[in-house]
């Protein structure tokens, strides 16, 4: 790891008291959750239908059995634990330096690590609601259900609070994320290739002093970054 860049990152964090972190799948790969677009990720696995078709709103409506078979098999990692990146971000929040974690992940690992102000742009596998009576169900209920989970109260279908393809992102989450980003003096982008919109478009609203990008592969923000580190986010943050 580049010691000079690590020292520069340490100094940027030291000098800042309004940091926002924007992260994606790469933050959780070190916890054993595969990246959608990696070599062994969802997009490269063979199913009867392409993964992006299965996890779409129209497919969920049309074929909930097949949706849930895939969802339980490939989207839920109930045993995953926070890694060094999640833990360091939670520490920075406790120190008052980090104001918000904005994540595209649905695994809940930031909260498990102790982060309190987490904006989940794409929802969470830990929240599930009956589509009829809106009763809440946790992840265990989904994992332990046979086939399509049904509500114990009214018999309605229980749907994960996860943003599927063709579904709009929550407007409140988007506006909160936009506000934190626009007010931050430092923004750290980590573990995301910034190709998923509209979430990736939020970074355009950053007007602060220092933009840090930590990602294994190139991103569209590399040219604007004050500090660019091509390494694993967990290794980098864990070394601070």
SSE order in H/E notation?
HEHHHHHEHEEEHEHEEEH
Termini separation:
12 Å
Beta-strand percent range:
15-25%
What's the main sheet like? 6 strands, parallel
Catalytic activity: N(6)-acetyl-L-lysyl-[protein] + NAD(+) + H2O = 2''-O-acetyl-ADP-D-ribose + nicotinamide + L-lysyl-[protein]
Organism: Coprococcus eutactus
EC number: 2.3.1.286
Main location: cytoplasm
Would you spell out the secondary-structure blueprint of this structure?
Elements: H1 3-14, E1 19-23, H2 26-29, H3 51-54, H4 57-62, H5 64-74, H6 84-94, E2 98-103, H7 109-113, E3 118-120, E4 123-130, E5 136-137, H8 139-143, E6 158-162, H9 171-183, E7 186-190, E8 210-214, E9 227-229, H10 233-238
Parallel strand pairs: 1-2, 1-7, 2-3, 7-8, 8-9
Antiparallel strand pairs: 4-5, 4-6
Family: Belongs to the sirtuin family. Class U subfamily.
Binding site for NAD(+): 25, 29, 36-37, 104, 106-107, 122, 192-193, 215, 233
Cofactor: Zn(2+)
What distinguishing features does this structure have?
alpha/beta, six-stranded parallel sheet, three-stranded antiparallel sheet, 240 residues, single chain, Rossmann fold, elongated
Descriptive notes:
A six-stranded parallel β-sheet has the order 3-2-1-7-8-9, with helices on both faces. It has a domain of 144 residues: TPP-binding domain (Rossmann fold), CATH 3.40.50.1220. The longest helix is centred in the last third of the chain and has 13 residues. It starts with a helix and ends with a helix. The chain has 240 residues and is α/β, with parallel strands linked by helices. 32% of the residues lie in helices and 18% in strands. It is found in: Cytoplasm. This is NAD-dependent protein deacetylase.
């Amino acid at each position: 790891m580049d010691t000079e860049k690590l020292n520069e990152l340490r100094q940027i964090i030291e000098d800042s008291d309004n940091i926002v972190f924007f992260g994606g799948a790469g933050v959780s790969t070190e916890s054993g959750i595969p990246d959608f677009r990696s070599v062994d990720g969802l997009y490269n696995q063979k199913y009867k239908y392409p993964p992006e078709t299965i996890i779409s709103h129209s497919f969920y409506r049309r074929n909930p059995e097949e949706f849930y078979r895939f969802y339980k098999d490939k989207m839920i990692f109930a045993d995953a634990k926070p890694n060094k990146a999640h833990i360091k971000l939670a520490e920075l929040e406790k120190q008052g330096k980090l104001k918000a974690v904005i994540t595209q992940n649905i695994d809940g690992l930031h909260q498990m690590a102790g982060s309190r102000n987490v904006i989940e742009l794409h929802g969470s596998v830990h929240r599930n609601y009956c589509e009829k009576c809106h009763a809440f169900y946790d992840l265990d209920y989904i994992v332990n259900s046979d086939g399509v989970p049904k509500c114990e109260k009214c018999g309605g279908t229980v749907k994960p609070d996860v943003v599927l393809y063709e579904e709009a992102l929550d407007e409140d989450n988007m506006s909160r994320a936009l506000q934190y980003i626009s007010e931050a003096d430092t923004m750290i982008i980590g573990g995301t290739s910034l190709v998923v919109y509209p979430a990736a478009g939020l970074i355009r609203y950053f007007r602060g002093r220092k933009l840090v990008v930590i990602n294994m592969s190139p991103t569209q923000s590399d040219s604007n970054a004050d500090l660019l580190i091509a390494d694993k986010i967990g290794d980098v943050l864990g070394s601070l």
